[in-house]
Amino acid sequence: MSTSNNLTVSWEVSLQKLMAGNNRFTSGKLANKELGAGRREELLKGQSPFAVIVSCSDSRVQPELLFDQSLGDLFVVRTAGNVVDAIATGSVEYAVEHLHTPLIVVLGHDHCGAVKAAVDGGAAEGSIGAIIDKIEPSLARAKAAGAAGSQLYEVATDENTMSTIRDLQKSPVIQHLLASSHLALVGAKYHLGSGEVVFTNTSK
Length: 204
Hints:
- The protein is of the alpha/beta class.
- The chain has one domain: Carbonic anhydrase (Beta-carbonic Anhydrase, Chain A, 3-Layer(aba) Sandwich), CATH 3.40.1050.
- It is 46% helix and 16% strand.
- The protein is built from eight helices and five strands, in the order ααβαβαβααααββ.
- It has helices at residues 11-27, 37-43, 63-66, 86-98, 113-120, 128-144, 150-169, 172-179, and strands at residues 51-56, 74-79, 103-109, 184-190, 197-203.
- It has a five-stranded mixed beta sheet.
- Helix 5 crosses helix 6 and helix 6 packs across helix 7.
- The mean pLDDT is 93.
């Protein structure tokens, strides 16, 4: 994708790009991407990512790969458990306000280790406890909805994605852009086995 102003790119087009890229990834028919000196030279002029991906730091979840995108295409914010704090939210705000990126995707995934740690309980050493603290309200909502056993892990994962969406919606910068229809905020879940990303929960 070129470094043209993303005010001319709709969030719908950006979402279709992600879906098409994930289809290529799951089918094994990856696009030819320019990763050489020419592309790097082009990006020296500036960046214009078409989507922000807020995803888990899990090594199995690499947005550029699973959406089959190249250098400069995605603005990625990764934390364990795809939770956000002020710094992560500020990173998203930078992309949508200053780079005019029209789409935010909060990407959870199945078999999430951070969610599993919250469900299983026990002591969390160091700053890991801050991650668990962010996930525990989602776990409580999953339990209140009747989830139990192995199902609890995945329901809590889905609740956690929604919690991150709600946290981002509290940002005045993001609120303004959502209201102006220049931005959409979408939830999604990546399935490790199939490689498929399922999109849900669009806010615009």
